[in-house]
């Protein structure tokens, strides 16, 4: 664009949603009469007639967001409205945002109240849009994190500036909402994604990161805050109630199964439970499992992720024990991943959590070739529909 660097205060964008609409073809009739057709070479869509797949869409989207990043002022925001039911397209736009240098800080549902013709006509159409809020980090932060690359301080630099960008209190109705972006797992994911996208070594594994969060930041209701944000949150907490975390989960793979177990063993859902109590509920919740997913048995999931008390009830490990549990689980999953590396041909049955652990370790070892080799033995949909695996694969492919 004929616009200088760092000069725009705010960007709102409503980009093409994959293959929802082929814009260049909407005027086909009138263009046929005129004998002049739209040049669709750089049209940012997925289209079989134009020979553009999800990867083409993602690469074009990266170019668009790179330009947004260039013109936006540091420390300012971009809002991206998005509407598509395909995981691969959703992951593509998120990767494009992060690859350009933006940091995603929030994803919410936007209820526009009035539906489109397609939404009203088709039962399978997505009824609501998603809104992604992302920011361009301060120039001083980018300089500092580059200067300290290779040290664990880059992880805490990222967390501090990420927490600083978010409001300490989010009110929904008359209650305080739990902010997922302030919780340990998502903070870790955002930190890893930023480092990988910027070509900076990831300085900490999950175990050390979670331990460091407790040492460096203040925790309230499983959310982390900077010191100057806590008083504001505590004051609001006295006046209202924290909204209970009511997640609707469907068990379709190992990751969602673990999330479901965390939910069922939380205080909001009655706390610790025995295997006998969990098993019938678990079977009831298991939905259509991906045919490529080697879903572990419930007993294995409990053994690898939770702790049993003297009454044989399984409970969520506290933060002091979580490090040991994480290390044990990672060790078992790495053994599983090694078996995939030693096999040949397409992987028809595998544990996606083992793939994530394997890719993470190979990335630390800078073994990009093996990441690419294993990724290309997986079904394409497995890579396209998992944002973390897609990120490791794409960046490794560029490195080799």
Description of the structure:
The chain is α+β, with helices and mostly antiparallel strands and about 400 residues long. It has 17 helices and 11 strands. A hairpin with a 4-residue loop joins β10 and β11. The longest helix has 24 residues, at about 320-340. It is globular and about 80 Å long. The model is unreliable at about 245-250 (pLDDT under 50).
Computed Rg:
23 Å
In terms of DSSP E residues, the strand content is: 5-15%
The number of distinct helices, counting runs of at least 4 residues, comes to 17
The overall pLDDT, averaged over residues, is 83
How would a textbook summarize the main sheet?
A: 4 strands, mixed
Shape: globular
Could you give the order of strands across the largest sheet?
Answer: 1-2-4-3
Give the total of beta strands: 11
* H-E order: EHHEHEHEHHEEHHEEHHEHHEEHHHHH
Helix/sheet category: alpha+beta
- Distance between the terminal alpha carbons, to the nearest Å? 32 Å
Helix content: 40-55%
Which ranges are low-confidence, i.e. pLDDT below 50, for 5 or more consecutive residues?
A: 244-248
């Amino acid at each position: 664009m004929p616009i200088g660097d760092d000069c725009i205060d705010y960007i709102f964008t409503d980009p093409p949603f994959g293959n929802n609409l082929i814009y260049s073809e909407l005027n086909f009739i009138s263009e046929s009469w005129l004998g002049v057709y739209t040049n669709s070479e750089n049209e940012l869509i997925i289209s079989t007639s134009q020979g553009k797949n999800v990867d083409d869409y993602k690469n074009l989207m990266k170019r668009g967001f790179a330009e947004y990043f260039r013109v936006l002022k540091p420390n300012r925001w971009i809002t991206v409205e998005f509407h598509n039911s395909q995981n691969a397209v959703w992951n593509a736009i998120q990767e494009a945002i992060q690859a350009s240098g933006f940091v995603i800080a929030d994803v919410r549902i936007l209820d526009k109240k009035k539906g489109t013709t397609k939404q009203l006509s088709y039962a399978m159409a997505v009824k609501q849009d998603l809104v992604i809020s992302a920011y361009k980090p301060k120039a001083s932060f980018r300089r500092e994190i580059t200067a300290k690359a290779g040290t664990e301080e880059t992880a805490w630099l990222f967390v501090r500036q990420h927490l600083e960008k978010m409001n300490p209190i989010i009110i929904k109705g008359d209650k305080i909402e739990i902010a997922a972006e302030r919780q340990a797992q998502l903070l870790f994911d955002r930190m890893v994604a930023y480092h990988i996208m910027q070509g900076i070594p990831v300085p900490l594994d999950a175990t050390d990161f979670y331990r460091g969060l407790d040492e460096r930041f203040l925790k309230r209701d499983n959310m982390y805050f900077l010191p100057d944000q806590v008083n504001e949150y505590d004051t609001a907490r006295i006046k209202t109630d924290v909204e209970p975390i009511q997640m609707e989960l469907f068990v379709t793979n190992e990751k969602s199964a673990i999330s479901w177990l965390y939910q069922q063993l939380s205080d909001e859902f009655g706390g610790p439970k025995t295997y006998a109590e969990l098993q019938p509920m678990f079977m009831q919740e298991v939905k259509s499992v991906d045919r490529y997913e080697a879903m572990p048995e419930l007993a294995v999931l409990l053994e690898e992720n939770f702790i049993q008390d003297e009454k044989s009830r399984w409970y969520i490990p506290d933060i002091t024990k979580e490090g040991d549990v994480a290390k044990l689980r990672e060790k078992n999953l790495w053994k599983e991943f090694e078996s995939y590396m030693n096999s040949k041909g397409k992987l028809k049955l595998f544990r996606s959590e083992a793939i994530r652990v394997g890719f993470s370790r190979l990335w630390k070892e800078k073994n990009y070739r093996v990441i690419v080799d294993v990724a290309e033995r997986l079904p394409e949909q497995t890579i396209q529909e998992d944002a973390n695996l897609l990120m490791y694969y794409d960046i490794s492919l560029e490195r080799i």
